[in-house]
Amino acid sequence: DKIIVTTNSIKNFICHNFEIKRKKIFIQKNWIDARKFYFKYKKKKLNSIYVGRLSVEKNLIDLIKIAKQVNIPLNIYGEGPQKNILKNIIGKKFKRKIIIKGNVQNNKLPSIYNKHAIFFLNSKAEGQPKSLLEAMSCGLIVIGKNSPGINEIIKNNKNGFLLNKNYSNLSKIFISLKGNHSKNYKMCTQARKYILDNHSLVKYMEIEEKIYKKVLNDQNI
Length: 221
Description:
Helices cover 39% and strands 14% of the residues. It is of the alpha/beta class.
């Protein structure tokens, strides 16, 4: 009777390809346990983290090149078919600065996030990535590729940064981050606020209840 999707871009795709009326489709965003993924701001060195699958669509080869270019430590958490390829690209010179850590239990992630200043997500496309939402809930500075799914969450220069095509604004982003603690703190709090306003469990349940009531009313139950 009703269709639930996580993003407006998915809704548009369904309407366009399957000729389904827009009013039948509801957007129900993923939720994050903001108490578990807590925000504990402190001044940190500019280190970075990626959490997710090690596969082609995540565009990790470019991410490693970015880390090398700006000379920033990068910890990669996850497993996937590109693992050995990525290790070769990291090479001996950067093996102590760019490290593939493997999988980690979800309950350990909040403390791991909070040991990092920056979260990278360079995917070519996403649905509604939980890792990005978790990082924002922990108040990390998030930097993402300007691609579907990511650019619906990150508002450039407000709650994070979006990378231009060919990464032409990469240097400018890192120049603005170095030593600018007041701006960094503001961006971290805006990231956290975005999660509380849009992806909390309470917000999720409100929308869920609304959808069920709509279905029941339409059927006169």
